[in-house]
UniProtKB/TrEMBL annotation:
The organism of origin for this protein: Actinomadura hallensis
UniProt feature coiled coil, ranges: none
Name of this chain's protein: Secreted PhoX family phosphatase
Length: 454
């Protein structure tokens, strides 16, 4: 497939789901000037500077601040935690929406997730999730701790039975700092009832530096990404549950964890051509999912080994396939080649892997770095992409008609006047077709964005 640097090619896909794109889309990360010029027919026009200095949006859109780090939780359990990361929306009663929001807190966090009796895994760990019940007008009716005592809760994913799988991007063992238990696990959270959540790790799903998960609604297979910070880099996993029909608590019954092997490819970064299709993907059983002695990515998988990738991040299910993100790859850090972001799709029924998007590089206005991070399908089709790199930070849309357009820009400077810095976006998710919810990581803020969505 021949692709120019300034073109985005639409690939195959189903209506409203399973959309694939192939092509170089450096426009996504080219800074403010490009953001104003790529609005296109399916965009919403240039971003209008926010007089309050929080969030720039297209004309006709508005935001509501639902929750902000350091303010009191409405439950009275303490302060709103910081490091707002992955998030999902679940349907509630009377037109309301439940949001479950991760907090990627490390030991030095200024605002940790308050420990709550009955739902705290490790009192020495500052991470976890909070849950918000939001009405149609943006009014927050409930805000409480959903799980506490976990570590570095980065992303995760929703299940078909309306629970949230929160993932620890951490593999420290008990005795590290204040930790009293091993970390590096997935936990299941009930967004509706605090008393149903069990602070029990889903150990069969592996102990590693988790990032995100996505569930195949047809057979319950859970796909998992690993964001390991040093080589050998992370793996892409699938978990085959013993109770594939699902339901709250079903994953505690265990199952088999496997890692992906792409024939002839030890490192995904070496695949550079958008639209590349690789047939015959294999899955190899993980020898020790609990990583008692050796981290999984270092374990012996036998002949041929498994396939690694730097910065495996977002993961979601669409149509008949799972999509996953590699934010960047750098040869000088150990990757086989350089890139500024990729989105892959895997079709289980054909065991087929496709490189569907390649990002960047951007201009010198936008420093190369972590490019796509959290990503989701928009209700009308296409992608919403949270930017996580240097310079200005945006949420961008990518349409089926090959257009890239800005949706939001963070205006909150967390650096200095001489060296400004803007917090990344995370946790983009929709409630129906009317409201997009998104987090700013620092200062931890959750927004509801409404307007003339198409």
């Amino acid at each position: 497939m021949s692709v120019t640097r300034r073109r985005l090619l639409a690939g195959t896909g189903a209506v409203g789901a399973g959309i694939a794109f192939a092509g170089a889309v450096e426009e996504l990360f080219a800074g403010d000037a490009a953001a104003a010029s790529v609005s296109g027919r399916e965009g919403y026009g240039p971003l209008v500077p926010d007089p309050d200095g929080l969030l720039d949006l297209p004309r006709g859109f508005r935001y509501a601040v639902l929750s902000r780090e350091g303010e009191p939780l409405r439950s009275g359990e303490g302060a709103v935690p910081g490091a707002c990361d992955g998030m999902a929306a679940f349907p509630g009663r009377k037109g309301r929406t439940w949001l479950v929001r991760n907090h990627e807190n490390r030991p030095d966090a200024a605002h940790r997730v308050p420990p709550v009796e009955g739902i705290t895994y490790d009192p020495g760990a500052p991470g976890g999730c909070t849950a918000l019940e939001v009405g149609p007008g943006g009014r927050v009716h409930t805000e409480r701790v959903a799980i506490a005592g976990t570590a570095v809760n980065c992303a995760g994913g929703p299940t078909p039975w309306n629970t949230w799988l929160t993932c620890e991007e951490n593999e420290d063992k008990a005795g590290t700092g204040d930790y009293t238990k091993d970390h590096g696990f997935v936990f299941e959270v009930d967004p509706y009832r605090q008393d149903r959540t069990v602070p029990e790790p889903l150990t069969a799903m592996g102990r590693f530096q988790h990032e995100a998960v996505a569930v195949d609604p047809r057979d319950g297979t859970v796909y998992e990404t690993e964001d390991a910070f040093e080589e050998p880099f992370g793996l892409f996993y699938r978990f085959l549950p013993r109770r594939p029909r699902g339901g709250f608590g079903s994953l505690r019954a265990g199952g088999r964890l496997e890692a992906m092997r792409v024939p002839g490819v030890r490192d995904l970064s070496v695949v550079q051509e958008p639209g590349t299709v690789i047939e015959g993907v294999e899955w190899k059983r993980v020898p020790d999912p609990l990583a008692k002695e050796t981290a999984i990515r270092f374990q012996d998988f036998g002949r041929g080994g498994v396939t690694h990738a730097q910065k495996l991040e977002g993961c979601y299910w669409g149509g008949d396939r799972v999509y996953f993100v590699t934010s960047y790859a750098r040869r000088d850090e150990g990757s086989g080649a350089d890139h500024y972001g990729q989105v892959w799709s895997y079709e289980p029924r054909g065991r087929r892997l496709t490189l569907v998007i390649v990002f960047g590089p951007g201009t010198d206005v936008q420093k190369p770095g972590e490019s796509p991070d959290n990503i989701c399908l928009a209700p009308s089709g296409g992608l919403m992409v949270c930017e996580d790199g240097g310079g200005a930070q945006h949420v961008y849309g990518v349409t089926r008609r090959r257009e890239v357009y800005p949706v939001a820009r963070n205006r909150q400077n967390i650096g200095t006047e001489d060296e400004p810095e803007w917090g990344e976006f995370a946790g983009v998710t929709f409630s129906g077709r009317r409201t997009m919810y998104v987090n700013v990581y620092e200062p931890g803020t959750t927004f509801a964005i409404t307007g003339p969505w198409r």
